[in-house]
Design a protein that fits this description.
The complex is a heterodimer of chains A (285) and B (517). Chain A is mostly helical and 285 residues long. Chain A is built from 14 helices and no strands. In chain B, a hairpin with a 2-residue loop joins β7 and β8. In chain B, α3 packs across α18. The chains are: A mainly alpha (285), B alpha+beta (517).
Chain lengths: 285, 517
């Protein structure tokens, strides 16, 4: 249905696209400009800063009352550990579904899909109460601890991840494993030595998707974490800016840039691999 | 041989540790009368042992680690949500009944003619406290917390009065506390209870202990609480002990209250009005979100899919920038943009059209703002999936149509769009379900505000069900209403289940999926 355009046709198409490119990237440019603008308010901001400064970025690392650096480290720690364990748990599960034929296999796969329909946050009250009660007996597994937050996130490790990985494992031929097993390797050894190295691309995709997903989570972190030094960036940044837009805009902008930039770069560089993973899952997490 | 032994023993050791931990937890759970949880835990542990010891269950060994988390953090919470939604759990009803009764039975009152004792406090090196009480008749009693008081003779040489001022300075290894030290330990002293005959002795003011009586007695056969001071009877009614004349004792306790949370949502005037508004807006919101993002994503995808368009790759990358920024950051940024006084949106509008719009204060404009923000967040996803789907539509169809003289619009309307819809329907339904629970956008941009006037619960004009649940559970003015919040969660569960069922049915993706298994 496409044919070569006249000059006017091409112009209109490009213009249309550029309008929405402007819509798409304007917030990013505006926030970047705010982060290097010496006036800290929304009102005094111009797109090309009149008074250039790095002070907001310096504040990011020095603000004692709002330890952004610590918050980002917390986010990286929680997301990193969650992502690593998600990959491990999902790979183990996917291996079983891909390589064994057993009773309940189909039901198992379909139930994983079914459970995934219900986002974990729907049960937030129950999760909160569960950790509240666990904390009475084992305090480091209760509320306001990173390890319990990670465990909550790991509840979502199985699900689409298993489907994605199983799909990939299915494409890896059996012959390598068979010859390894003839040489005396166990299933577990062939999983570790053969499947995992060959499946590295999908492991990386799931790691990154899970990392970004966990890094961006606000709701569960905000329910479970209650003290400033334990906040993740999502919880801390919201606390910092709510009700203070007119006075803390510059510092907020710098923190946003630092918090978003690494994720943006990874995402845009790997967009092709990540997008195929995301769209198979159907829903952005 | 060594190679063979090692994995077996490692497995046994790990299982052993796990079982030990489980037994320990079960004992604690049973001890605290959480019989259900104890039972479930036992079942779980037996199941895990079976899987690791039976060769038949071998494949399941790979799933156990993930399943443990899935069960504890996803499936158990779902069932617990259902349970809580039928209780009054929340502020004022946090304790269970036994704990509440224990609190009441610890309360005391002072009868009119009760005897007062002056006292002297002592402590030993490890901080334990003993008290010597002096009755009005100048008799001395040595007292320890929760124990019967013992009459003592202060002339006994174990009591040492070094400075001969008539006050004992030391006995055994306990030393006298002076006035300031006594006041510093007032909290501790207040919690002391001594027994004398059937009476209790406790601190009443800075200088005196007094004989007092137990205030309440629970009568388990009639399930009621007796006030021993004035003979009032309190009956167990819906999580409170309530007297005949309607007096309610606090704290209340948690009990099952049947469908009351649900009937409250539908019938109670203060709650049901706002709830129905939230309910309606949730559907409208999800619908608007899908329509707007899909319309824009589709348009852009069709333009970008054009092989004659230059710079397509770069355009695509620039257009998915919103999708690459962590959600919470974008939402907080947009909230700043929509700030009425200083936000960039109003500055632009004011410059060009001389209007100022109360974005976050007016119910309608707040909704418009949310749709705009969500359009920005969501159109890249729609563009990506549409681009993917366009690839799979065979170009011969279009060529054949154009030979037959169909215009480009006709081609799109009659061929491309219907085919797109077929392949995108499951994703669009998924997107509907996602936006139905899109907590981040709502909570971070408007926080559900502006408030609905006269609402009995924290409900705002832009709240959707999930943000309403969050506010009921964690931000209520009257405390945390976990029972009511769980009831709303349960309603969301049901709706999501229906949406998913429709999704599966219309797209038959379930069958497709099962074929590929």
């Amino acid at each position: 249905m496409y044919r070569k355009h006249s000059f006017a046709g091409a112009f209109i198409r490009n213009l249309f696209v550029w309008i929405f490119i402007a819509f798409a990237i304007f917030p990013f440019i505006w926030i970047f400009s705010a982060s290097i603008n010496s006036s800290n308010t929304l009102l005094g901001q111009t797109i090309i800063p009149k008074n250039f400064t790095w002070s907001h970025y310096i504040e990011f690392f020095t603000n004692k009352q709002h330890p952004f650096g610590l918050w980002i480290l917390n986010s990286i720690k929680v997301s990193g550990i969650t992502a690593i364990f998600t990959v491990i748990l999902a790979a183990l599960g996917a291996y079983a579904f891909s390589r064994f034929r057993f009773k309940g296999r189909r039901t198992g796969l379909l139930s994983l899909l079914l459970v995934q329909m219900f986002p974990q946050m729907l049960a937030m009250v129950a999760i909160y109460l569960l950790l509240l009660n666990i904390g009475k007996y084992i305090s480091w597994l209760g509320l306001n601890h990173h390890i319990s937050l990670i465990m909550v996130y790991l509840g979502g490790a199985m699900g689409f991840n298993v489907w994605l990985m199983k799909g990939y494992f299915d494409t890896i031929s059996y012959s390598l494993e068979e010859s390894a097993m003839i040489d005396g390797a166990t299933h577990f050894q062939s999983f570790i030595r053969i499947i995992l190295p060959l499946a590295r691309p999908i492991l990386a995709v799931i790691f990154i998707l899970q990392f970004i997903g966990t890094y961006s989570d606000f709701i569960l972190a905000s329910i479970l974490l209650s003290s400033k030094e334990n906040y993740t960036l999502a919880v801390g940044l919201r606390l910092f800016i709510t009700g203070q837009y007119s006075t803390r805009w510059g510092a907020f902008a710098a923190a946003s840039i630092i918090g978003a930039f690494p994720i943006m770069v990874i995402f845009l560089l790997l967009q092709n691999q990540l997008v195929s993973g995301l769209t198979r899952g159907g829903v952005k997490e | 041989m060594k190679k063979f032994l090692f994995p077996i023993s490692l497995k046994i050791i790990i299982l052993g540790i796990l079982n030990a931990l489980a037994i320990w937890s079960v004992i604690i759970l049973i001890f605290d009368s959480h019989y259900w949880m104890g039972g479930i835990l036992i079942l779980g542990v037996v199941f895990i042992n079976y899987i690791f010891l039976s060769e038949k269950a071998y494949p399941f060994r790979y799933m156990v680690p993930g399943l443990i988390f899935l069960v504890i953090m996803v499936i158990y919470p779902i069932f617990y949500t259902i349970y809580v939604s039928f209780t009054n759990y929340g502020t004022g009803h946090i304790l269970n009944k036994e704990q509440a009764i224990e609190q009441f039975e610890n309360q005391v009152y002072f009868p009119k003619d009760s005897v007062s004792y002056t006292f002297q406090a002592f402590k030993n090196d490890s901080g334990e406290i003993k008290i010597i009480l002096f009755s009005p008749e100048e008799e001395a009693y040595l007292c320890e917390n929760k124990k019967i008081i013992v009459k003592v003779d202060l002339s006994d040489p174990r009591f040492i009065d070094q400075d001969k001022d008539g006050i004992i300075d030391q006995f055994d290894n306990y030393k006298k506390l002076d006035k300031i030290q006594t006041i510093q330990r007032l909290n501790e002293l207040q919690n002391l209870r001594f027994k004398k005959d059937e009476y209790i002795i406790k601190l009443t003011n800075l200088t005196e202990f007094k004989v007092c009586n137990k205030k309440y007695q629970f009568d388990s056969s009639l399930d009621r609480l007796l006030d021993l001071e004035n003979g009032k009877v309190y009956h167990n009614i819906e999580g409170y002990f309530v007297s005949e004349d309607g007096e309610r004792l606090t704290p209340g306790f948690r009990v099952k209250i049947g469908f009351q949370n649900f009937t409250k949502l539908i019938r109670s005037q203060q709650i049901s009005g706002p709830f129905l508004r939230v309910f309606g807006w949730t559907f409208l919101w999800a619908f608007l979100s899908v329509i707007t993002t899909f319309a824009l994503g589709l348009t852009l995808a069709i333009i970008l899919n054009d092989p004659y368009l230059r710079l397509r790759k770069i355009y695509r990358t620039l257009l998915i920038v919103p999708y690459s920024i962590p959600f919470f950051i974008s939402c907080l940024i947009w909230r700043g943009f929509f700030n009425t006084e200083v936000g960039i949106v109003n500055r632009i509008l004011n410059n060009f059209f001389q209007v100022i719009i109360p974005w976050l204060q007016d119910p309608i404009w707040a909704k418009v703002a949310l749709v705009v923000v969500n359009l920005w967040l969501g159109f890249p996803y729609m563009m990506i999936i549409t681009l993917g789907a366009l690839q799979s539509i065979p170009s011969e169809l279009g060529e054949a149509a154009s030979i037959d003289g169909a215009s480009r619009w006709q081609q799109f309307k009659n061929i491309t769009f219907p085919l797109l819809l077929v392949s995108l329907a499951p994703l669009l339904i998924g997107s509907f379900a996602f936006n139905f629970n899109n907590f981040n956008v709502i909570y971070l941009v408007t926080q559900g505000r502006p408030a609905i006037p006269g609402a009995g619960t924290p409900a705002g004009a832009t709240d959707i069900l999930i943000s309403y649940t969050y506010r009921l559970a964690f931000e209520g003015v009257r405390g945390n209403q976990w029972g009511l919040a769980s009831a709303v969660s349960l309603i969301i569960f049901i709706i999501v289940a229906v949406i998913s069922a429709i999704g599966f049915r219309y797209t038959r993706s379930l069958e497709e999926v099962s074929k590929n298994v």
